[in-house]
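Rotation project, supervised by the postdoc (A.L.). Task for the rotation student: set up a whole-complex structure prediction and record inputs and outputs verbatim in this book. Inputs entered:
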Amino acid sequence: MTDTSTNSSAFDAEKEAGFGDYFALLKPRVMSLVVFTALVGLIVAPVSVHPMVALAAILFIALGGGASGALNMWWDADIDRLMNRTRKRPIPAGKVAEGEAFAIGIALSFMAVVMLFLAANAVAAGLLAFTIFFYVVIYTMWLKRATPQNIVIGGAAGAFPPMIGWAVATGSVSVEAVLMFALTFAWTPPHFWALALFVKNDYAKAHVPMLTVTHGRAATRRHILGYTLALAVVALALGLTSIGGPVYMTVAVVLNAMFIKGAFAISRRDDAACEADQHLVERRFFKLSLAYLFGHFGALLVEATLAPYGLGGW
Amino acid sequence: MATQIRAEHELHRRRLSRNVGLGVVLLLLVALVFGLTIAKVGTDPSDELGVPGTEATQ
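Outputs recorded:
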């Protein structure tokens, strides 16, 4: 045989990572939420920041979030291989080696924290470092596989960005920053548990204790209602602070009324009703939860934008 | 029948995307740090190179 054509099977081109595969390690969809909420936290703060410093700070906060995503994928590679939703991630797909993801995650984490310190201040950098530690060590390594409250704990990590944004501007943490944190923190469980009710996940196969599996779907429905009520209190309390105002309060009252109505509807349903209408109520609630978070942070942004014209705020 | 070696393999395309992507990211990082430096030294009153009219420039 004198066939000199290249033999594709000798090296599997499909396993060669492109730039997009490395970018996917940083969980870009999660990063978009991080960027948005951190930006709102930074803009609504009472201290103005140079636009270049603000841009750099937001990028480094996003980079820190992305780095923790890469470390999460490194640690969870074993269970990602087992679940359909995560099977195509860069590590289980064989495109990025586990060690490579670990190195990228660690390097970007240090870079993001150091650069945020140089661009902004020690408080913001410290909060970013804590967020990465919390998400990677406390959530991913420790509690995700240990407790059905894993979503609640993971939500705390996702709730830090507006607080970091606030700290970039002010160099400190105040009640407004804490309530912005609490808003995302209390929003995460109803958001994810609603999704868990209508998406067939294979967490059980991966031995990840999800509330729907460990305590049943009825208990999950009650949990959704409980967190939704707590969330409403936080959302309205945020409206009474210095960053709230009539626009925010109107949006908050409307969205929380809709959210509570949806949570009550979910709590009254059973699986037979869900199957009958193909989880219509749960799907609507999940969609509403996306509008809910963007609506609240968007309204805070509107208040801050109107403030220079004497229109925003109380 | 002469056989052909494909010069452009999928593998090369992926490697190119990786290299170009990393190059662009590094250039953006340089631009960001440069912009940040200009912003920091130009606006910080406590900085020796701070805004005109402050102690350091008088």
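Student's summary: The domain at 19-171 of chain A is CATH 1.10.357.140 (Tetracycline Repressor; domain 2).
Supervisor addendum: DSSP finds 13 helices and no strands in chain A.
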